[in-house]
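Entry:
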Amino acid sequence: MRIVVRTAAKLAVVSCCGMLALCAAGTVARADQPILLPNSLVISSSTYDRTQGPVASLAVNSTLSGTANATAKAIAGNDYVDVWTNDTVDGSFGITSAIQLTDIEPHSGHVFNTVAVPPDQVVTSFSSKSELGLHVTKDASGSSHLVFVAYAGAGVGQIDVSNADAVPGQDPTNPCTFAFGTKHAFARTIVSMDAQGNFAYTPTIDYGGNNGRSALLGSNGLYYAVGNANNGSVSKFGPNGTNPDVTETTGLEVVTPIDGATSNVAIPAGNSAEVDPFIQDTFGSKLDKAGKDNNYRGVTEYGGALYFTKGSGSNGRDTVYTVSLLPTVGDAASTKISIVPGFPTDSAKATGGNFTPFAVFFANDTTMYVTDEGSGNALDLSSHAGLEKWSLVGGTWQLDYVLTKGLTGVVDTGLTGPDGQYPDVTTVGLRNVTGVVDGDNVTIYATTSTSSASGDQGADPNKIVVITDKLSATTMTGAVARESFQVVAGPTYGTVYRGVAFVN
């Protein structure tokens, strides 16, 4: 066993059987010790805490918000192992938790620093597996900024935040609004952190009834975010009684930075706009609630264009999308979203979930890596789940191979902690991704997707993994066939890993 402890950061890296567990101690960065160090890897994580907020008193038969008349009763208390089974009686069930950012040397696991994002400003929803995607970009002055999305004003231990409204009284059909009242609303907030650990906040009116998932600072100085919306019974696009309209504050959003010193800064009128909102009217007969066709998850900018994914839901198309030019708030509605040539164009309903893309990394102009969550059907798990490598040939992207060795099917056992034994966790795919290119070597870091007998697989202790691929390879032969994923961090009892970003 190897233990490395940085006193300044109060964060330990514990190595056991070749696996690293990052153990945050609620610290902040020192002013003289930057976090976004060149050639480092930043990881976002969250640890379950049942000692604060309403969850501290959660017990069997507590009233939950899972029905329109708020009569659902909790079937489990607040212990980490069992609490997630409450989502069987409350479809909105979730618990907020604090956010940690850890900056490591990716080869050795040496921890440079850890930052506790102020929980009195923003938090995450612990079991919302698609949250806390990370992006490191530079502003006009060349300074690096780490960007992600979180909830403002909730605090740790709040219940049913991820499905609550974004602004007070937004959706009267939302069961969370009915159960908790119109004040149970939390602005989905874009957070930017500079290299000294200083935070700036841009709250939005977007993603009411669901979650903001990932955001980045575009090369034009605007924020671009992806997420989902509509937890109520809204069944049509356009004016529908929600204010702001949950079907027009979702999908890909352009946001003008506010960058306030706190997360309760006022949101100016017209501060954000949905890109191509009418895309949700292009898929024929509705198979789900309005606003779900553009249920996007991962986003990246490459070559002045945006690329983003849809890999969940029963309607729309699960695939990789793009907009060729960075839209502004003013022209967002008229900017058209298209499917990246070569990626699936059939409906999610027709395929039943045989392609569940999550995030994208470009190694160069003709090489794209796409993570697949493996949370769809058997075909998804057998042919797409893992790390997909795509090559651009004659203007069309084609799938070269899928890297899965040392990843899919790996079972983590013995996950024991203060609340008892957690169910065994099986790795089934990948979520957020980042990478670095060095000659003909492409090193990819990603967070794992899991399956377990728990009540909510988003609460499973997952991992950060790494693999190095040959950039020039297009077939899984020779050395490529021997490439295997290695564990960088986790699994850690009570902790989930969400986002990764390599700092150039």
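The longest strand covers residues 425-438.
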